From TrEMBL:
Key words, A-Z: ATP-binding, Exonuclease, Helicase, Hydrolase, Isomerase, Nuclease, Nucleotide-binding
Residues given in the record as ATP binding sites: 32-39
A family per Pfam: AAA_19
Family matches, as InterPro entries: DNA_helicase_UvrD-like_C, DNA_helicase_UvrD/REP, P-loop_NTPase, UvrD-like_ATP-bd
Domain of life: Bacteria
Protein's UniProt name: DNA 3'-5' helicase
Native source species: Pelomonas baiyunensis
PROSITE patterns in UniProt: UVRD_HELICASE_ATP_BIND
Length: 648
């Protein structure tokens, strides 16, 4: 085995980085600020292990999300790890890793459910079961006037916490569950009872594996089996003989993932471990993420780690580091060579901010350097006005973390309402566009496809076939909306949609301005369909923004909708852009961009002064390299601007 240092491409490691790259210690932790080269240094450490002769398959790197997986792979490629080697390394999210281990332990894969809407029926059944169980010792504590469907959102949030923190595994197996114990766990009794019923339904009746797994169930199920001894460290299902185990974004560890990590370490006792994280980047506290897993819990349950520093951010200037340090209330050193230009742009209205962003994007495209401009948004609905402005100027852009506004189901529905009212489907010229439009109609009307000829198919396939047939022409699309989507809509949805259609048929601009949102009532329309209140709010916000944009186009309602159609055609013709991207903050975690624009740092726009919002802002600000542009309404600046000393 050679111990010469791996020589990376593109960078010269600092002494601190080299110390981490070369350290062979069994347990090594690095806690450092955003941009201090944690992911890069983890990549260097992995490359060093390969350089020393470790087979790529003997390296396991775990992290929280798929974007974080991609960020680490990108860093490995950046420093010169060959593509063929990269493909053999195991860089995985906890969820994927745990499900892979469980598939081996259980002898087969378990179906995954992706959305809250897919798990909703199971949660509703669980509530109904909890409310009707015979011999319930505390029936008064289960009293609720709410409909089970209205409880689903809150329950799923509590389930995230129960799973991530492994709350029930903290109790004795024999302990009887009482309202007092529920309160000790920070839950109400109905939630606790429903959780037990939900797990009974999810796991019951299947001898080898659960009926399904939803987000967080991979690490939770594996951790549970590890604690109960069904899977043990050293079992063949777990990898062993690993040379190196790494964890990136370690601040996102929760109890379930930590339990999995402990078993991975115990199964490969000779492996070296390196974990890196930054406690101010915790944005998933609801799933039990806690910085303590890279500090006191680690020490108590795994062992005393060696701790090495990465003291200096390599990404941005000292000036920006001072602002971010003030926000996070911690020291923040930066590379004195790095230059980041910070521009504070007061914009009295969102429209002015959108115009500014369009100008910045245009100038950005005019540069020859292939640099990236990323507009980071707190809410997807904030993109409507900005995208509209970009499209009007023919400026190519992409999106990350959300769909382009003209393709969002609720916007398709509104455009489809207008197309239906006017019997003009010019904006939906291909069968694919009409199929997406019909999917939106079915989503918001709650109408089901119920055709004798399609009875042999399951509900989803039947809908796909029926929609594809109906989308073949504009006429058949119109008939499907009239004869099916509207006719079988739930009565309240149908009333709202028909009233909106009548309004759009009238072409009356004043009525459109005054009554469109009241008649359609997008929040209620969405609340009937989506489980999460946040989703209903998002739908309502998107439609409200579209309405505003339509009004700003002048008095002619039909002309505004024709413009949406034209802009959608522009969007589809342009191949999108990787150089100018509008994105959620979550989708930018772990990444960096030459120019970051953070619009709407205005009171009430970014969110209240909670730790989670502050950490989101911290993540957003620290993505920038050479330029950072912040916009805000000077009459109502966000308090975060003061906390970060951008404003006095
Ligand atoms: N030795 C080096 N010389 C110059 N630049 C470096 C060096 N090491 C890392 N960098 C650069 O520093 C920047 C930040 O690195 P990296 O993304 O690894 O930081 P991080 O701590 O993981 O950030 P975050 O916490 O935001 O995920 C990158 O642009 C990277 O290329």
């Amino acid at each position: 085995m050679s111990d010469a240092a791996f020589q990376p491409r593109h960078i010269t490691p600092s002494e601190e980085q080299l110390a981490i790259q070369l350290r062979r210690t069994r347990l090594l932790l690095v806690e450092a600020n955003a941009g201090a080269a944690k992911t890069t240094t983890l990549a260097l450490r992995i490359a060093q292990a390969l350089h020393r002769g470790a087979p790529p398959e003997s390296v396991l790197a775990l992290t929280t999300t798929e974007p974080a997986v991609d960020a680490l792979k990108a860093r490995l490629a950046f420093i010169g790890v060959e593509k063929s080697t990269l493909a053999r390394l195991r860089v995985l999210s906890y969820e994927t890793f745990s499900r892979e281990v469980l598939a081996i332990a259980e002898g087969g894969t378990t179906p995954g459910l992706e959305t809250p809407e897919q798990v909703q029926p199971y949660v509703v059944r669980a509530v109904e079961r909890a409310l009707t169980l015979p011999d319930e010792p505390h029936p008064d504590d289960l009293d609720t006037d709410a409909r089970p469907a209205d409880l689903v959102e809150g329950l799923l949030q509590s389930f995230d916490t129960i799973k991530g923190r492994m709350l029930l595994q903290q109790l004795d197996a024999e302990q009887r569950l009482t309202p007092a114990i529920a309160a000790d766990l920070g839950l109400d009794y109905l939630t606790l009872r429903t959780w037990l019923c939900y797990e009974f339904i999810r796991r019951g009746g299947h001898p080898d594996h659960p009926e399904f797994r939803y987000a967080g169930d991979g690490p939770y199920d594996l951790a549970r089996q590890l604690l109960s001894g069904e899977v043990q460290p050293g079992d063949t299902a777990l990898p062993h003989g690993l040379a190196l185990i790494c964890v990136d974004e370690m601040h996102d560890l929760n109890r379930a993932a930590f339990t999995v990590l402990k078993a991975v370490l115990a199964s490969s006792p000779r492996a070296a471990f390196v974990g890196v994280g930054d406690r101010d980047q915790v944005i998933h506290a609801q799933t039990g993420a806690e910085a303590a897993f890279m500090a006191e819990h680690f020490k108590a349950e795994i062992g005393q780690p060696e701790v090495l520093p990465l003291t200096t951010t390599r990404r941005f200037s000292t000036q920006l580091a001072q602002h971010v340090g003030a926000l996070a209330r911690k020291p923040y050193a930066a590379d004195p060579q790095a230059q980041t230009h910070i521009a504070l742009e007061p914009c009295d209205t969102p429209r002015l901010a959108a115009e500014l962003i369009a100008r910045l994007a245009q100038a950005h495209h005019a540069q020859t350097a292939q640099t990236a401009l990323r507009v980071l948004l707190r809410h997807a609905s904030q993109s409507v006005l900005i995208e509209h402005e970009l499209l009007r100027h023919g400026i190519a852009y992409g999106t990350a973390g959300f769909a382009p506004y003209l393709a969002r189901p609720e916007i398709l529905l509104v455009r489809g309402l207008h197309a239906h009212a006017r019997q003009d489907y010019a904006g939906f010229s291909t069968p694919e566009q009409r199929a997406r439009l019909l999917d939106a109609w079915l989503l918001f009307t709650g109408a089901r496809v119920d055709s004798l000829e399609l009875r042999h198919l399951d509900a989803r396939d039947a809908q796909r076939v029926a929609v594809a047939e109906a989308a073949a022409s504009a006429d058949s699309t119109h008939s499907f909306v009239e004869g099916h989507a509207l006719r079988s809509a739930q009565p309240a949805a149908r009333r709202a949609l028909e009233a909106t259609l009548a309004l759009l048929r009238s072409g009356d601009a004043d009525a459109f301005e005054a009554s469109f949102l009241t008649l359609l009532d997008p929040h209620r329309l969405a609340a009937r369909v989506f489980v999460r209140e946040a989703d209903a709010e998002r739908v309502a916000a998107n439609i409200t923004q579209l309405h505003r944009v339509a009004l700003a186009e002048g008095g002619d309602v039909d002309a505004a909708f024709r413009l949406f159609n034209q802009l959608d055609a522009v969007r589809q013709r342009s191949r999108g852009s990787e150089r100018v991207v509008l994105s959620s903050i979550e989708a930018a975690k772990g990444l960096e961009f030459d120019h970051v624009v953070l619009p709407h740092l205005t009171a009430g726009e970014f969110g209240a002064g909670t730790v989670e919002n502050r950490n989101l802002l911290y993540v957003a600000l620290t993505r920038s390299r050479q330029r950072l542009t912040l916009t805000f309404d000077p009459a109502r600046p966000s308090r975060f601007l003061k906390d970060a000393r951008f404003l006095i």
